[in-house]
């Protein structure tokens, strides 16, 4: 039997300490996520210093748990992959230094993975027959971008947010509505009971041919609406407001993606990142892709938000391409996806 290529991946870029083990790029043997959400909740957002400290406390344990879950030892591994950016500097450093120490002491290749690329590759964890070229919408807490992929690791940037990321807009709006952190899942849940047409909110199209996004105007419009209602001493229907806000985000994300796929003659559409867990967004994409006869891939919910399985999936392709890092690999908080610009 041919030797299996087994990748151990580590992810510590924000508030999840995670380790995963993937065999031959397709068989997920372990996926452990230690979430810090509860710790940061009382501050209304992620506190970087607290995040790094918790990563330090958890990282060895999640790796041991992943090995135990996979029933493997260090000697069974083929390579160590790690998310080295973008993310919080102190948080990333924990993962990078752990991965470097492991790879060095075990004599294994070290693979640096871009966290955004990881989100995109969450799709390959469940679907192996994804056809290029494709258009991928990445919507997370820190990033919103639309890329065209011609092949593995090849990205053409079609558009990106000019201000807030989609997830950031969900979180900020949830905060002003008093819903707590992280706001995305709360708004998603509340929106199911609301009327998306109840409150008129703006859509930032930014010109007919633009694939860029902007969510700060929408966020301000929600704030103005809340102030107006408070001045009139009226009650806010939070479900209607959540549904109307979510509809405004969904419409722009979906229609710009469909338009990009049409313009580029692309049949395949991928969704990636934490916001792709949103029920309304998933449903709208399914409907629109059926209408326009596009093949749609969305990761299962558990692979949408931060995890190490997605880092292992992206790491596997870089490992096979012998795109290995050297011992100088460092955390790069502002790391960009290696893209060509285009429209
Ligand atoms: O990808 P991710 O886990 O972390 C980053 O790389 O940023 O994304 C986290 C973001 C948060 O802003 C969170 O509110 C949002 O994803 N999110 C959602 C949902 N679940 C998570 N947004 C809308 N609806 C959801 N169901
Ligand atoms: Zn992420």
Notes on the structure:
With 343 residues, the protein is α/β, with parallel strands linked by helices. The chain folds into two domains: 6-121 and 304-341, Nucleotidyltransferase, domain 5; 130-298, 2-Layer Sandwich (Nucleotidyltransferase, domain 5). 42% of the residues lie in helices and 20% in strands. It contains eleven helices and eleven strands. It has helices at 37-41, 48-70, 89-106, 115-121, 166-176, 183-191, 216-231, 238-263, 279-291, 301-304, 309-320, and strands at residues 6-11, 16-23, 27-35, 79-85, 110-114, 134-139, 144-151, 154-160, 268-272, 295-297, 339-341. It has a six-stranded mixed beta sheet, with helices on both faces. Helix 4 (115-121) packs across helix 11 (309-320), helix 5 crosses helix 6 and helix 5 packs antiparallel against helix 8. The model has no long low-confidence stretch (mean pLDDT 95). The site of 5'-O-[(R)-(carboxyoxy)(hydroxy)phosphoryl]adenosine has 20 residues, from helix 5 and helix 6.
Give a short synopsis of this structure.
It contains 11 helices and 11 strands. The chain is α/β, with parallel strands linked by helices.
Give the class from helix and strand content and strand pairing.
alpha/beta
Ligands (ions, cofactors included)? 5'-O-[(R)-(carboxyoxy)(hydroxy)phosphoryl]adenosine, zinc ion
What is the tally of beta strands? 11
- CATH architecture assignment of the largest domain: 2-Layer Sandwich
Radius of gyration: 20 Å
The overall number of domains is: 2
Strand content: 15-25%
